[in-house]
């Protein structure tokens, strides 16, 4: 018996069901992204020179097969080249293994173009491949010195990564200093003439006097003013304070990647009580609230504390969350995260930087800002940890 299910009417009468279905669709969408995160697409191109054969001046099937395999290896090499220097160096260690077992690492290959230059006897083929990234990473880890070390002899590592977002930003007005120099020049000339006469007369026993004076003054002046201005402007960089995000959801990402690389990973919260009170996670977070680097005193205390706890390796850094915008392709919320990090070797008296990543930016999308931020943080943490591990693998660290 067949039953017709009236889907449209119930959905119309129950708006919440539409919301549930939409969220389910988003969930399936992101599950698909997670599944495809271990598969990469890359192109490869290879040319093979051949000699004359029973087929005349055309490339034989054996030549075409050889070119096809070399093109697939080139595609894997291209993928690693885009991943960075350390990843590319890791591929060199497994190149022969990849070439001998292409079926394990290449899921499918499609011929995009092929040319048979019969006059030069050169056959060229270009392919697009789907690469099994998970198996490639496993092959790299299997050949690393760290992974090959017995579990009991593996090095301990702890990590201090802080997720943060700008909480407030203080900007300063320009400070302007102005100076005015004023010069005055006066040219003057003048003359003064005086004339006078005096006389007496005696009449009837009386003496009379008379006098007359005249004075002429001429004066001429010329003034010239000169003004010279100057000064300086002082600009001060803005000051930012950061809001710390809980990073508990990222601990599993860092722990999983560092552990799979062959380290004995210890979470910082478990290590802190054994550092003689020197390493304090709260001090690290407070430093990152006001700056991009740890205060030298804080870093020294962390190093001395981990040395006291006999933890030889420290991974630390920041994941800076940007502002939310709209992804143009999907219309979902989009958040970018900039990550920086490094691994320090604490086995000697002076710590040595053996691995560095960033600043590198990664983006995540989601139906809400919180989901987009979470996806971006996980992607940044995963990529940064893998890059740090790749560099350590190249060193042959045990």
How would you describe this structure to a colleague?
The two termini are 66 Å apart. 38% of the residues lie in helices and 40% in strands. It has twelve helices and eleven strands. By secondary structure, it is of the alpha+beta class. Mean pLDDT is 77; it is low at 1-36.
Total number of helices = 12
Return Rg in Å. Answer: 41 Å
- Residue share in β-strands: 35-45%
Helical content stands at 25-40%
Global outline:
elongated
- Low-confidence spans: 1-36
Distance between the termini: 66 Å
Order of helices and strands: HHEHHHEEHHEEEEHEHHHEEEH
Mean pLDDT: 77
Taking the sheet with the most strands, its summary is: 6 strands, mixed
The class by helix and strand makeup works out as: alpha+beta
- Count all strands and give the number: 11
Which short descriptors sum up this protein?
398 residues, alpha+beta, six-stranded mixed β-sheet, three-stranded antiparallel β-sheet, 12 helices, 11 strands
Q: Brief overview, please?
A:
This protein is of the alpha+beta class. The chain has helices at 8-13, 15-36, 61-83, 85-100, 102-105, 133-142, 145-148, 248-260, 268-271, 281-290, 296-308, 369-395; strands at 39-49, 106-117, 122-132, 156-170, 175-203, 206-234, 239-245, 264-265, 313-326, 333-345, 352-366.
